[in-house]
């Protein structure tokens, strides 16, 4: 006889599970942010005068920021496409723990190369390969963790996203500490890249601790049990094309789904139970991908356009903006006004959506305002970007650049968060997973398009 009592939900003592998911969110975006924020170190090694005649004419232009952005985002797009093939065939533990181990090893390699003299072309090739593989594992890690956190209450998804939102701030602060230490460039770079090694190791240990916690185990086991019940339900329902459209309802089929008491004493399943089960499953029949896309295409366009605009100029253009003031501020200008400011305001824009959601998802103003963000591209290109070849400098003062960056980054976080929040609200609850997967794909598409566009924009400047 089936028991009607529900297992009592345990409490998250000391918010340990919340802290772990915050660290997991932080760990997913550490690779992208640490490589992006360290662009000055990489450009200095690639643009040193050891090769050639040491003049601007004798230097080879590597366009590191552009290639770094492109090779960071392409793996995300690729593994989003491979998501349905890769994930069912590899266990969650292997995907998450394995990805973290490989990311840790690649960070160790990057830290080691700081101390190794290397010819510039070879250093560029090794760095680009490292960026490709570290972000490939990062894409697998991110997709797997999104699926994991979805098994817990909704507030843990917010905690996970907060961790992701502060990953860039963490990297920028680490860079500021490296600069403030006043160590030589090599020692500062070594200390900087040791930081994500420690961060990734802490993330790995946090993940391994998760199944040992009663609160996490309650929801993870519950999610696994629900998937098993859905599999059992699909086996109990009549197969298409069976005789009479119903199959043998009285056959010796074992039953473990509690829907009243569907099991007969002989181990078979009653017709009434089948009818109830078939109605329940029919109500939850998922729409096709195309049907879901027709409902969310405006939000898909918005998230793609927002990231296309953002990645086309950040960091490829913004990292080359120079301060008009000489002295110590020159060393802090890019880390503070480009990276730290962007990440803080992007996080602020995402956070504001919990208090304000305007325009509404049905409003035509939403896509209009998203498209109007394209104005930030010429505004940032006309700041004091050096070196430049074609366009004049119109906004050369630091304050103007900072003001533009505040609006640029806050609007990016705000509209991205709204787009990702609105999309699942436009479809039936059982189509929410499909809508989320589609939005993740278009998010990755926007990142890749922006990274590709950055090459053209940097040449125009």
TrEMBL record:
GO molecular function, one term: uridine transmembrane transporter activity
Topology of this chain in the membrane: Multi-pass membrane protein
Keyword Transferase in record: no
A Gene Ontology cellular-component term: basolateral plasma membrane
The keyword Oxidoreductase is annotated on this UniProt entry: no
Keyword annotations of the record: Membrane, Transmembrane, Transmembrane helix, Transport
Top-rank taxon: Eukaryota
InterPro entries in the record: ENT1/ENT2, Eqnu_transpt, MFS_trans_sf
Biological processes annotated in GO: adenine transport; guanine transport; hypoxanthine transport; thymine transport
Pfam families in UniProt: Nucleoside_tran
Transmembrane segments: 12-35, 67-87, 94-116, 122-152, 159-180, 192-210, 296-317, 364-381, 401-423, 435-460
Localization annotation: Basolateral cell membrane
SUPFAM superfamilies with a match to the protein in the record: MFS general substrate transporter
Family statement: Belongs to the SLC29A/ENT transporter (TC 2.A.57) family.
Protein name per UniProt: Solute carrier family 29 member 2
Species this protein is from: Electrophorus electricus
Gene: SLC29A2
């Amino acid at each position: 006889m089936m028991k009607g009592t529900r297992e009592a939900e345990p409490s998250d003592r000391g918010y340990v599970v919340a802290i772990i998911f915050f660290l997991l969110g932080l760990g997913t975006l550490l690779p992208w942010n640490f490589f992006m924020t360290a662009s000055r170190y990489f450009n200095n090694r690639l643009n040193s005068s050891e090769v050639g005649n040491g003049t601007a004419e004798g230097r080879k232009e590597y366009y590191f920021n552009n290639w770094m952005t492109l090779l960071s985002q392409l793996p995300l797009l690729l593994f989003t496409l491979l998501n349905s093939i890769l994930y069912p065939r590899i266990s969650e533990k292997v995907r998450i723990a394995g990805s973290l181990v490989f990311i840790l090893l690649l960070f160790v390699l990057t830290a080691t190369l700081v101390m190794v003299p290397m010819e510039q072309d070879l250093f560029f090739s090794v760095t680009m390969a490292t960026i490709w593989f570290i972000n490939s594992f990062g894409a697998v890690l991110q997709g797997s963790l999104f699926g994991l956190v979805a098994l817990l209450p909704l507030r843990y998804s917010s905690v996970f996203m907060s961790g992701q939102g502060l990953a860039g701030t963490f990297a920028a602060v680490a860079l500021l500490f490296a600069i403030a230490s006043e160590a030589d460039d090599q020692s500062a770079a070594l200390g900087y890249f040791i930081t994500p090694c420690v961060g990734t190791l802490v993330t790995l240990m946090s993940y391994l601790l998760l199944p040992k916690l009663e609160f996490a185990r309650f929801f993870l086991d519950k999610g696994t049990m629900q998937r098993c019940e859905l599999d059992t339900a699909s086996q109990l329902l009549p197969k298409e094309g069976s005789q009479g459209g119903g199959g043998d309802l009285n056959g010796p089929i074992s039953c473990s789904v509690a829907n009243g008491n569907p099991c007969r004493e002989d181990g078979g399943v009653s017709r009434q139970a089948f009818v109830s089960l078939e109605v329940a499953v029919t109500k939850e029949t998922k729409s096709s991908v195309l049907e879901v896309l027709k409902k969310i295409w405006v939000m898909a366009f918005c998230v793609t356009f927002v990231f296309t605009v953002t990645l086309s100029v950040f960091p490829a253009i913004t990292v080359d903006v120079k301060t008009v003031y000489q002295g110590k501020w020159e060393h802090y200008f890019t880390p503070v006004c480009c990276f730290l400011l962007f990440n803080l305001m992007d996080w602020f824009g995402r956070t504001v959506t919990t208090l304000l959601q305007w325009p509404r998802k049905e409003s035509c103003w939403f896509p209009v305002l998203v498209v109007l963000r394209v104005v930030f591209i010429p505004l940032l290109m006309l700041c004091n970007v050096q070196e430049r070849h074609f366009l004049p400098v119109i906004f050369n003062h630091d304050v103007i650049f900072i003001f533009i960056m505040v609006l640029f980054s806050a609007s990016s976080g705000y509209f991205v968060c709204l787009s990702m929040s609105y999309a699942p609200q436009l479809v039936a609850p059982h189509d929410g997973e499909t809508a989320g997967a589609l939005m993740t794909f278009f998010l990755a598409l926007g990142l890749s398009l922006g990274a590709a566009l950055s090459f053209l924009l940097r040449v125009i400047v």
